[in-house]
Design goal:
The chain is mainly α and 395 residues long. The protein has two domains: 1-92, no CATH class; 191-385, no CATH class. It has 16 helices and no strands. The protein has helices at 11-31, 37-40, 42-47, 51-63, 74-91, 96-108, 118-135, 141-169, 178-221, 223-229, 236-265, 283-292, 295-310, 343-358, 365-368, 371-385. α1 (11-31) crosses α4 (51-63).
């Protein structure tokens, strides 16, 4: 009969229980804002309980914690030191020396390597999250996409490394990667949604500029003269408005997905590392332009006129073959919409999503205290709360 310190449980069950405890501890060291003194020393604490616990802790050091030499117990102290370093990295930006080490680790993290190291994987998670945060400060779409490529590569590498480790190690250490693999998969969803949002908003912005040119010319010379002058091809204005509308519906779907996924994994962020919806580059500027211009009202008015002409009140607008446009959607971006879908109401829902993000407690003080931020917040909130009427009137 076993003692309280050495319960007579099957060795496999002990291994599974300790693996789960250690995995939870490492996860907390990297991602919890609370004090983690016990978690940092988890292996040292468990290893002194009894011989079987010590044996399991040493075995894990050789399996999922870096492939240490397990002939002695020194590996336990080494892992504890690495957990302490991981904690410092989670709470503080890495210094130049650590950044260089991170670049080395990224290039040498081989998912197919037999020597898996969950701590290296957590370091990679911290690193590309911080780099993704930096992409939110991009001033051009080219800069954003270029920086995102490194984040995407790192995120995919992390996901592959976690899932490979779980398959390769199985019941003997694979559980160390279970929690991290979930977070890695969530990061991929956030990345996919954010890239869609930023790039499609960029195309909408270009389309809005194109429409501004058309409408200013029509106001100055009249629609008929503009048409006869050949400034634009027949039907190009309508095609552009249709595609702005369709892209906005596609963006909205990605924005809802982004907000929902971020809410699910928000607990796993320490400090200011997450990229909130309103922090995606240039999205605030484009939304402010939409609410302060007559664009929404004009698109809805054009749709209503077309519906009246067709004698249709509802249903997908298949009666008109859209003229090819420079703003046409690719097949993968296309989102089915109805001709009577209201763009003004859609933009109102954008405003609600973005103002909720702007009200998030983790919005930085530098952001929330800036005059531009406050003006934009007021404009979006006012438009989102206005249940009647059209869009803005200023051009």
């Amino acid at each position: 009969m076993g003692s309280l310190l050495d319960p007579q449980l099957p060795y496999e069950l002990k291994y599974s229980i300790l693996t789960s405890v250690i995995a939870e501890a490492i996860h907390s060291v990297c991602l919890s804002a609370e004090d983690q003194k016990w978690e940092i020393g988890v292996l040292q604490t468990l290893s002194v309980v009894n011989k079987s616990f010590r044996s399991i802790c040493i075995s894990l050091c050789g399996r999922g914690l870096g492939g240490y030499n397990t002939t002695t117990g020194r590996c336990i102290a080494s892992v504890s030191r690495r957990l302490s370093k991981l904690r410092r990295m989670a709470l503080n930006p890495p210094d130049d020396e650590e950044v260089e080490q991170l670049h080395y680790d990224w290039h040498n993290l081989n998912p197919s390597n037999d020597s898996h190291n969950v701590i290296d994987c957590y370091i990679l998670l911290i690193s590309f999250r911080r780099f993704r945060k930096a992409t939110a400060k991009s001033t051009t779409i080219e800069e954003f996409n270029k920086m995102q490529q490194l984040v995407i590569t790192s995120s995919k590498l992390l996901s592959v490394a976690c899932h490979h480790a779980m398959r390769y190690l199985g019941d003997v250490g694979g559980g160390l990667f279970a929690l991290l693999s979930e977070v890695a998969d969530q990061e991929l969803i956030l990345l996919d949604s954010s890239i869609r949002i930023v790039n499609l908003f960029h195309i909408v912005e270009n389309a809005l500029k194109f429409l501004d040119v058309i409408w200013k010319a029509q106001n100055r010379y009249g629609e008929e003269l503009v048409s006869t002058m050949g400034i634009i091809d027949d039907g190009e204005e309508q095609a552009c408005m249709d595609n702005v509308k369709t892209r906005l519906f596609t963006i909205h779907k990605s924005a809802v997905r982004y907000a929902e996924e971020l809410a699910l994994c928000k607990w796993s962020y320490v400090g200011q590392d997450e990229v909130l919806l309103h922090q995606l580059p240039r999205t605030l500027n484009i939304l402010k332009r939409l609410v302060e211009s007559p664009t929404c009202a004009k698109i809805d008015e054009a749709n209503m006129k077309r519906l009246a002409k067709l004698g249709k009140g509802t249903g997908r607008d298949v009666g008109i073959e859209a003229k090819p446009s420079v703003f046409d959607l690719s097949e993968s971006d296309e989102e089915e919409t109805n001709a009577d879908d209201n763009v003004t109401e859609l933009v109102r829902s954008f405003c609600v999503l973005w103002t909720e993000s702007m009200d998030d407690p983790k919005t930085t003080t530098a952001e929330s205290t800036s005059e531009k931020f406050r003006v934009t917040h007021r404009a979006l909130k006012a438009f989102g709360n206005n249940s009647g009427g059209g869009g803005g009137t200023s051009s």
